[in-house]
Amino acid sequence: MYLDIKNLSFKYDQINIIDSFNMSAPKGSITTIIGESGSGKSTLLRILAGLNNSQTGIFTLDNQIVFNEYKNVETHKRKIGLVFQDYTLFPHLNIEQNIAFGIHSKHKKKERIQSILKMVELENDAHKYPYECSGGMQQRVALARAIANQPKLLLLDEPFSNLDQDLKIRLRDQFISWAKQEEITLIWVTHDMEEAYAISNQVIELIKKI
Question: Count of CB atoms within 10 A of residue 73's CB?
């Protein structure tokens, strides 16, 4: 399997937040994580991205060990992207520069930027700064930056929750189309049960421990 997680556990202040979590997923698939607040959804994403360390567990991606008892690949070497609810754009950089920041390789960087701008329909707005953009445009820039470096895995923590329903559905469906085009595997956190079953290849529920 392209992605495999076994026996992942995480404690905070002696409280089990995540206990023996297991999942697997093929390349290019969408796995949605649901559960009430405090069930560990965001914590799981942070562990996979390398922002937190689990107490136990094995995580393999594309036949490579990301972490286990003996190994822990550094965050910036994992080829895993993470998109939060807020857009976290750099206010001093325009749209093109924000997207360029997500591209680590210099090989054909300019062509890659133009391709991404076209994909997210922002090629005519590349000069604009975040304060000049609507919420929907800012969200597209954040997502474009996340996929620009072609991560093996992209983690999304309720990325459309701040948008109105019509815009949310349009951008969500558009983003899924981009991700499929780029063959990026997604793990998506949401509170929206209807959304989870509408977009996913599999849905996993986390149960709050306390």
Answer: 16
CA pair distance 164, 126, nearest whole angstrom: 24
Mean pLDDT (whole number) for 67-79 = 94
Q: Sort 111 into a burial class: Cβ within 10 Å, 0-12 / 13-18 / 19+.
A: exposed
Q: Which amino acid is at 189?
A: V
Token pair 């499929």 is found at: 180
CA distances from 10 to 40, 53, 102 (A): 9, 8, 29
Q: Let me know how many helices (H) and strands (E) the chain has, helices first.
A: 6, 9
**Cα–Cα separations (whole angstroms), residue 123 to 24, 127, 142:** 37, 9, 15
> Which domain covers residue 65, as residue numbers?
3-205
What is the distance between the terminal CA atoms of the chain, rounded to a whole angstrom?
32
Q: How confident is the model at residue 200 (pLDDT cuts 50, 70, 90)?
A: very high
Q: Is residue 210 part of a domain?
A: no
Q: Which residue has the tokens 């076209």?
A: 118
Tally the domains of the chain. 1
pLDDT score, position 34: 95
